[in-house]
Design goal:
The protein has 7 helices and 5 strands. The protein is of the alpha/beta class and 168 residues long. A 3-stranded mixed beta sheet has the order 3-4-5. A two-stranded parallel sheet has the order 1-2. Helix 2 packs parallel to helix 4. The chain is globular.
Length: 168
């Protein structure tokens, strides 16, 4: 959503002037992913507004990150409303980031034996790649996105995905 907000022009508005560039970009990618991969299940993970356990360990966690633009913040509600209306599964837990939720789902015993594709703009999630998990690293457009398994991720990174945590 954040990438779409910056990738699509602020001229994408409704008739009444409501900015929808992030929503448009987000759903454009979602529809293309559904069309190409035809997933049996889809989960959407969102950060909670509450501080996470990381803030207790390190109070300055994300302290230098600038505040999210209000024009983007309001689009999160629009996006969630559309996802709920379309009966998609949204997971948002107080005190957890979307990455925590995604990591939990990727490692879930309930989903063992199922192929999983994580769609994200965050290369750090490549650490979750294994025989069942691939990462679609989204670009500014779906055509610029790349699907990574352990072999293609190693080529891109220059080291195995099992070493990402050590490298970081």
């Amino acid at each position: 959503i954040h990438r779409a907000y910056h990738a699509y022009p602020k001229t994408l508005t409704t008739k009444d002037g409501k900015l929808v560039n992030a929503a448009y970009g987000f759903f454009s990618i979602v529809l293309q992913v559904i069309n190409k991969y035809q997933p049996a299940e889809i989960y959407f993970a969102f950060d909670s507004k509450e501080k996470t356990f990381r803030h207790k360990v390190y109070p300055e966690y994300k302290g230098t990150r600038k505040k999210t633009d209000e024009e983007l913040t309001v689009q999160f509600k629009t996006i969630k409303d559309v996802l709920l209306a379309a009966d998609f599964k949204i997971i948002e837990l107080p005190g957890f980031e979307a990455d925590d939720i995604i990591g939990t789902l990727a490692c879930s015993n309930d989903l063992t034996g199922k192929q999983k594709i994580i769609i994200t703009g965050d290369g750090d999630l490549m650490q979750l790649i294994n025989k069942e998990v691939k990462v679609l690293l989204s670009g500014s457009a779906f055509q610029k996105s790349s699907l990574f398994d352990s072999k293609t991720a190693e080529i891109k990174l220059g080291y195995p995905v099992t070493k990402i945590i050590e490298y970081k």
